[in-house]
Amino acid sequence: MGIAVVDVSKHFNGFTALHDVSVAIPEGSLTALLGPSGSGKSTLLRVIAGLEEPDSGQVLIGDQDVTDTPARTRGVGMVFQHYAAFKHMTVYDNVAFGLAIRKRPRAEISKRVHELLELVQLGGLAKRYPAQLSGGQRQRMALARALAVEPSVLLLDEPFGALDARVRQELRAWLRRLHEEVHVTTIIVTHDQEEAMEVAGQIVVLNDGRVEQVGSPRELYERPANEFVMSFVGPVNRLGDTFVRPHDVEVLHEPEGDGSAEAMVERVVHLGFEVRVELVREDGQHLTAQLTQEQAELLELERGQIVYVRPSRATTFSAAARRPDRQRSG
Amino acid sequence: MAADAAVVGAPSRSRAARPGGLALGLATGYLSVVVLLPLAALVWASRGQGPAEFWQQATAPEAVAALKLTLGLAAACAFVNAVAGTAIAWVLVRDRFRGKGLVDAVIDLPFALPTIVAGLTLLALYGPGGPFGLDVAFTRIGTLFALLFVTLPFVVRAVQPVLLELDVEMEQAAASLGAGSFEVFRRIVFPNLLPAILSGVALAFARAVGEFGAVVLISGNIPFKTEVSSVYIFGQLQSGNTSGAAAVSVVLLVISLGVLLGIGGVRRWRTRYDRV
Amino acid sequence: MSRYLLRFGALGYLAFLLLVPVGFVFYRAFEHGFAHAWAAVTTPEAIHALELTLLIAAIAVPANTVFGIVMALALVRGRFAGRGLLNAAVDLPLALSPVIVGLALVLLYGRGGWLGGLAGHGVRILFAVPGMVLATMFVSLPFVVREVVPVLREIGTEQEQAAETLGAHPFQVFRRITLPAIRWAVAYGVVLTTARAIGEFGAVSAVSGNIEGQTQTLPLYVKAQVDGFDTAGAYASSVVLALIAIATVVALRVIQPKEH
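Structure tokens for the assembled complex are given below, as produced in the milestone run.
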């Protein structure tokens, strides 16, 4: 079922977490709510879950207005950053919990739980306790638990935030595959743009309680609506009113045409397959260029060397789309 | 982080986590009937026939003597506990010897032992006919022993966890900068322990001021010499002077409250740099 | 060198103040043989005192346990004005002298007190068991609350919210998630409450009238025997109370690691 959030606002003690936010989540999609700390993304997720009541606005799941429905009866499955595992129950009992509450027959529960444990690759661990599992395993258990009651919507609140970098990578790929198999409308909250880009089909970028842009990862990267989105979604050089991605900065030995400017190489950082070159332009402006290993080798770059830089692609925003001075409330 | 912090800290609609109004009302009602109502009656009764009578009762010579003795003994007890309790906590945390676990368990005994039994044992041991030939019954020292017994765990248990958490690297850094072990204690360890010591001292003081069962046997309850306020109040109650007993009780409560607030203030002042 | 000095100083202090006196009570009780001690502790008055003590505890402890859990939940999770005041009120019994507690009860339920009229209607509070139960409830009130509050703070509300999204009613959440999470803290608090309830002397003494065979708990019995120079009875009963205290300390040690 698709989700619609219509003009939702939420305040906490004089601080406004959400300002008239409206978002449409297509059925069966995997959408990321992306934004920095304090952007309101977790609040929005909890409003959709029914764990927070909006001060104004509506939440619709499918075609039903669920704004006044409590979390218990909304049919949402939720996964929390720190797992919220029921520590005193086995993995089996954790996953079975929603079904046990609904008083399903024992045989049915057993079948479903084992099915799910296989699905999340925890088969055989049914009798263990959460404390005996790794972080990644606990999170997969939490997912199985949420899926057990066949929710119409799956909500993930920074689910990989508490895990090691490598486990995070693995679980991102795993989540994508799982979504392709299960096809439940899924929303994932994250502050990690790489994660959002990698996992989601649609991204909602939030800042200071407002939606900055909604689009596919590619749209966000190539056609950002404003300065905030552009700098949040990837590294960017700001040259006056122009924004240039590091990989769009051409480094040349001779000036070529308009737009070339003289610059001095301050530092060359070799990061394996890519090379980052830190430069300072004639007019004092600092910028970063990203080159492949090959390109860097051809140019034979050295500290102190004078080169010429030219943006192969630059973006400017209209005055309205620049980082606006937000009215801080409270 | 503000919005996320607000999400975590602010009230949520989730009702699974809180008791409903009825449960809360019943609990508050229970608290009122069991604790608050009797205390209100006490304060009311202390008025007696008016402020003049209150003053007369509160300043009766025997009452004043008892009060001075009580506060003096409680202060002495708090001081001894500050030193001994810290030393014991130190030994329990930093030292290693066989039977340490047993010693650690034994510290809780004064919490669990009825005060009258504590009083009896001290009387038997350090009173007339005691095996060590030591007789401190009917003396202030003996009374102090009884108070030390019942207040033993407070400073120890307050200091132990802090000592456990204390970053050993701080001491190592100080040593590498040239500080000897006494200096390290004085400049690094002690300032970090002081808030915990003060907490324990406050609890010990409050307990010592009100102690009755442990004291009533060994002290002999001699007015103007070894009679503490709790015994005096009990005596006034038994002889029917309830408003007088109430007046003295109120005075005792106000003074101990003042002392506790003072200790709390010192503690907050000392930890002012720990809070943002 | 100074380490040994400190160690023996601390241990010596403990032995002198704590271990030797308690050990001595056992010695004195069994000085004239086990049979003698047994006889002294099985007199009708002594047995009645023990029964009364246990009865009072059996009422006060469950009441304070239920109260403690509800109050802890309210203090940690509730959002109403006056939480700070409520918190302070719960801690009051710890700061009050037991005699003052007893006095307060006498003033409330005695002649001329606000509820003094109850006696006229045949409801005897003072000099009877109900008064002793109230006194015991008063002094043993805070322990369960104080043990449960930090644990509740630590575990947070995520597990309960997860259960809620899985469809559980508030009561189901409480029974299946909250209660199991705090059970060891509750157990620790219950042990402390029981020890306090059994050992209480001053408050109960003030309200009971100390009528032998009727309103005498075991601690009051000990005092009465000392006053009456029946040292055998006093020591033997003290041993019973000391054994309960030791069992308490053992129970606390067993439960404590499970709290974490």
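Chain A touches chain B through 18 residues (CB under 8 Å). Residues 324-330 of chain A have pLDDT under 50 and may be disordered. Further analysis is deferred to the final report.
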